[in-house]
Specification:
mainly alpha, three-stranded parallel beta sheet, two-stranded parallel ribbon, about 50% helix, globular, Sphingolipid delta 4 desaturase, sphingolipid delta-4 desaturase activity, transmembrane, FA_desaturase_dom
Length: about 350
């Protein structure tokens, strides 16, 4: 577990880049996954900050994209309504039907709502922050467990302290790897119960002089508790089972491939310093371009609808300049079947030293 905190001389020599431009292991779609059960430690600042500067200088037009896209709010209402209506349709359905509809439709819609919560977290839907917060509460309703506001807090830490050990909440803690990271069964358990894992993990991370607790979190709990009660009265037990399964599957329960997004985005699947991977394919049609993850981290103020245009303009920095995924199924398969593909398969950096 010493690899988690320390950085040996060997590691520093092996991965020496300080420029912020990552040495790469090829470009284009992933052909061979070559992860290792060890951190790839770097000393450079986030690659995204450097690449944003390079792209902005070469293509200044990318700085003219709108910083919010209000029609996204329509999708929040439409998807919440879709889950409510299908839950009512499941009121008297068989468990097998509920399981199938949850896996194919419910999880896809629930995952799409998480993507919209992500957009609202970055204030990319409305110009006013308050409206973004209100619609974040609406988008979180079908997930039943109130998690949208806490997600917003920890996701912002993720962007500010990307891949910093013990600071970025997206980086697994050493206990995860030591207990579950070295067997297909352990990794499958971690994957299926990722929603619980991430909730427990958050307790190990500092709040960085901020706190998710406040009026919006209180409202998150009030709204979700009220919604859960009212929906249970309307759709009955089986309708609620459908909503619960849809929510859990959207983050990997029962090995749903949509959960592989959290592996695909930042796990080191090559022996290089590339710390973020995009995924191009049908998931972007179903999930509001969430696969454009390098693009999002480079230009965090660009709404989902403009990310493909960004990729097209600066293709030499993305599709022609980095490795990328094309299938969450493939990511999940490699994760479960490669012994060296563990929770330590990450590009990481030491936390910034605080100056008092």
């Amino acid at each position: 577990m010493g690899k988690g905190k320390g950085a040996s001389t060997k590691e520093r020599v092996r991965y020496p880049s300080k420029s912020g431009v990552p040495p790469l292991d090829g470009t284009g779609p992933m052909e061979k996954y070559d992860p290792k059960d060890e951190y790839i430690r770097v000393e450079a600042v986030q690659q995204h900050w450097t690449r944003r500067k390079l792209i902005s200088q070469k293509y200044p037009e990318v700085l003219n994209f709108p910083t919010y896209h209000t029609p996204t709010a329509f999708w929040v209402v439409a998807l919440v309504s879709a889950l409510m209506i299908t839950a009512k349709m499941m009121e008297n359905a068989s468990f097998l039907t509920i399981l199938l509809v949850s896996y194919v439709f419910g999880a896809t819609v629930s995952h799409a709502l998480w993507v919209l919560i992500h957009e609202l977290t970055h204030d990319l839907v409305f110009k006013e922050g308050t409206m973004n917060s209100i619609f974040l509460l609406i988008a979180d309703l079908p997930h039943l467990i109130p998690a949208g506001v806490s997600f917003r807090h920890y996701h912002r830490l993720h962007h500010s302290f990307l891949n910093e050990t013990y600071t970025d909440p997206d980086v697994p803690i050493p206990y995860e790897n030591s207990i579950l990271g070295h067997s297909p069964l352990g990794k499958a358990i971690w994957f299926c119960f990722y929603s619980i894992v991430i909730a427990l993990r958050s307790a190990f991370y500092p709040l960085k002089d901020q706190s998710p607790f406040g009026i919006w979190m209180v409202l998150n709990y009030i709204c979700n508790i009220a919604f859960t009660y009212l929906m249970s009265q309307w759709v009955g037990t089986w309708g609620m089972v459908y909503l619960i399964l849809s929510s859990l599957m959207s983050v990997g329960f029962l090995m749903h491939p949509l959960g592989a997004r959290w592996i695909a985005e930042h796990f080191a699947v090559t022996q290089s310093e590339q710390e973020t991977y995009s995924t191009y394919g049908i998931i972007n049609t179903l999930g509001f371009n969430i696969g454009y993850h390098n693009e999002h981290h480079d230009f965090v103020r660009v709404p989902w609808i403009y990310l493909p245009r960004l990729t097209s303009i600066a293709s030499e920095y993305y599709t022609k300049g980095l490795r990328y995924h094309t299938s969450y199924w493939r990511v999940l398969y490699e994760f479960l079947n490669q012994d060296d593909f563990t929770f330590n398969s990450r590009v990481v950096r030491n936390p910034k030293q605080r100056v008092d």
